[in-house]
Structures are given as structure tokens and as C-alpha cells.
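Quick one:
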Amino acid sequence: MSNGLTDGDSDLLRRIARGDEEAFLTFYRRHQGPVYRFALQMSGQAEIAEEVTQDVFMVVMRSPKQYDPSRGSVAAYLYGVARNFVLRRLEQDRPYLTALDDPQSQHAQLAARDADPLSDLARNERVESLRKAVLALPPAYREVVVLCDLQEVDYAEAAAALQCAIGTVRSRLHRARALLAEKMRAEERCAV
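Output:
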């Protein structure tokens, strides 16, 4: 019997369909981090990211045969499921307070604790501005930035996750980067 650590995702999904808890645990450990980071970067809220991650793996547990390898990688499938849950949740919670706007957020506490030299403060402010700019993007642009630039997913996998053409991913990413650059330049002008 296999220990589950060397099993491919397809084999793990077959074993999950048969009720193998060890296979589910291995699959979860392998994919939980990227799914959580994607949901966090899309929503800006740890609470939503946690719920979405749980929902994604509940789908896997209940319907492991839903994944179709001919439509893309397992990661693309998981990002696609997570995307749907995040967008649904954001629609329900609109307007929402992001973790970046919440002074009690974990990120704000860490930044306040670690802010010593002036250069670190300036860099942290720029990173914070960029995060806010990403969260302010319309969802269609935010999701391509999160997938391609932050999660480092290739265009083909992003297209599979978003259920659109690769050209659409490229054009959205181009437009999203232009919007981000514009927002960052505007903020720099205001800071001067």
C-alpha cells in the first residue's frame, strides 16, 4: 500500500472517492496553502479565506469525481472552485471591510511591531498601497493578478481556473497591471 506522499493527484482523488481519509489528508495538505492564499488575496479577509478553503475541500470530499483532467490541472480546478466561493461571498458581504483596512488585523499588528527604520516604513507603506490597489480592482482583473502574479500560475492554468480563453487572461492581466500602475503613480503624486 502506498503512503500517499508519492501519489499523484488523480490517484489521490480516486482514493478519496472510495472514502480513503489518508488520501484526503494528503491531498488537503498538498493544496490547502495555495487555495487559502488565493482566497485571502482575492478577498483581503482571513475569515473569508478560511471559509472558502473549507468549502473548497468539502467539495473535493463530497464530489472528488467532479474534477475533469481534460479541462486542466487539479490546481486550476481548485482555484476555479475557490474563485466561485470568493465571488459569491464578496457579493453577499458588499460593502466589506478588508483586513487591510482593519486596524486590528494581523497584518497591521505585525507592521506596527516591526516598523523600525524609515526605509522599512516606506517599503511597508508601498506594499500596503499595492495590496489595497489589488483589492480595489474589479474582480475580473483582481483574479488574474492574484493567479498569475501572486500565485505564479501560468496563463493556461489561469484560463482553466477562470473558464476563459488564454487570450482573455492575457488581456485582463495587461489591463489590470496598467490600472495598478496608474493607481500607484497617483498615490505617489499625492504623497509628494
